[in-house]
Specification:
- The chain is built from two helices and three strands, in the order H-E-E-E-H.
- It is of the alpha+beta class.
- The protein has one domain: Metal Transport, Frataxin, Chain A (2-Layer Sandwich), CATH 3.30.920.
- A three-stranded antiparallel beta sheet has the order 1-2-3, covered by helices on one side.
């Protein structure tokens, strides 16, 4: 299944992250101290890496 930015946005918000700002084509999320930058043109490999780093399932 192809992962899109909207899928990652839902997963991050469900995991407790909030969208703090936009910088160009990247959305910046925070959950306390950890900060995650997600490109709008997200590919599957990067989506898996972000999910793993953020402790999201799958």
């Amino acid at each position: 299944m192809k992962k899109t930015y909207l899928d990652m946005d839902r997963r991050l918000r469900k995991g407790g992250y909030t969208l703090t700002r936009w910088k160009g084509s990247h959305a910046i999320y925070q959950n306390g101290h950890p900060t995650v930058a997600v490109n709008i043109k997200l590919n599957e490999m990067v989506a898996r890496r972000i999910a793993k780093e953020c402790g999201l399932d799958g």
